Amino acid sequence: MTDDVRNIRTALDAVAHHWQPHRLTSVNDYDVKVAKLHGEFVWHSHPDTDELFLVVEGTLTIQLRDRDVVLGPSDVFVVPRGVEHCPRADDEVSIVLVEPRGTVNTGDAGGDRTEPLRELP
Amino acid sequence: MTDDVRNIRTALDAVAHHWQPHRLTSVNDYDVKVAKLHGEFVWHSHPDTDELFLVVEGTLTIQLRDRDVVLGPSDVFVVPRGVEHCPRADDEVSIVLVEPRGTVNTGDAGGDRTEPLRELP
User: Fold this and answer.
1) Which of these, B100, B96, B115, lies nearest to B19 by C-alpha position?
2) Rounded to a whole number, what is the distance in Å from the CA of A106 to chain B's nearest CA?
3) Contacts with B102 from chain A: Cβ below 8 Å
4) CB of A1 less than 8 A from some CB of B
5) Do B50 and A1 touch (CB under 8 A)?
6) What is B8-109's CATH number?
7) Is the Cβ of A92 closer than 8 Å to some Cβ of chain B?
8) Which of A8, A80, A99 sits opposite B76 (nearest CB)?
9) Does B48 touch chain A (CB under 8 A)?
10) Strand A22-27 vs strand A118-119: parallel, antiparallel, or unpaired?
11) Cα B22 to Cα B24: distance, rounded to the nearest angstrom
């Protein structure tokens, strides 16, 4: 939990690098994160948890093995636990994520795209 | 979980009455809800859970016993578990809530402002 008001857009303005999730706040043992994405991520899944994506600005394509899910501003999509996905942003996109504390961005894939959860400045 | 895309603004357009939370989607055993508020709610707390408020449109005042927290668009505030609060919207406000499944809107207060969680049409 963060004991004061956080603004999603102001928080995103403070995020300098793509693919680095920052903690906006927490609800019990769930973290609410902001991130900016540009380019393609890696295919991965989270075997133990669903993952919520909310687009703030831009367009995000969540590639699934059988279809692409395209999200615009204010769109929300939940990738079910265990489902392989690969986010792709042809132009920069700003998002909010909701998932349990400790959820790693690369899930079961690991590798050099793995990033720690950062605190906002 | 809801297995397709949900748009927060479209969902709010479908909510006809104030103080009636509707389920937008779910992440594991947490529900993400939308609601429209106008007027003053009741003082209550949730002894077992934090409660996240995100304002989409309008201005929401979350009255705490020792201060008022005023939220505008894109502002997020988490009321910690056990903390008494009373939301007030002098004009209509549209919000998103995140909390564990089964969290009741009136918390420990109960009474005639208690509403079931509704599904969107």
Assistant:
1) B115
2) 18
3) none
4) yes
5) yes
6) 2.60.120.10
7) no
8) A8
9) no
10) parallel
11) 6
Q: Cβ A24–B76 below 8 Å, yes or no?
A: yes
Q: In this predicted structure, what is the pLDDT of residue B35?
A: 98
Q: Smallest Cβ distance to A6: which of B25, B27, B76?
A: B76
Q: Residue A56: how many CB atoms within 10 A of its CB? A: 19
Residues A66-80 pLDDT 10s: 999 999 999 999 999
Diameter of chain A measured on Cα atoms: 41
Distance of alpha carbon A71 from alpha carbon A60, whole angstroms = 5
pLDDT per position as a tens digit, B43-92 = 999 999 999 999 999 999 999 999 999 999 999 999 999 999 999 999 99
